[in-house]
Amino acid sequence: MAKKKNARSRTAPPPAETAESEQLSRLAEALAKYGVGTRVIRREPPVLRVSNPESEYAVEDVGCERREHGHAFLASFGVHLGTSESIPLTARKVAWLVGATDA
User: Fold this and answer.
1) What is the total count of domains within the chain?
2) Positions of the region Disordered (predicted)?
3) Rounded distance, CA 83 to CA 53, Å?
């Protein structure tokens, strides 16, 4: 008779929550009003994948870096989008970047 393998032993534990992924989650919450899709991808380093549901090409991965005073959000191509002190403004910039708002 074959023994059943414990499924828990084969799956890796979920990545630990970091300060950066927490900040990305806050940004995702602020982006909700723009109707974009968001998903925090917990890898090293974590990113926030933002997508415009009206375009399969309008997708941006936003990174988060710890700075001397708080955190900075960066577009995948290195442009500074805002800080953890300006989440609503940063959300507006990210929504604009994926074409979900005019201004």
Assistant:
1) 1
2) 1-24
3) 25
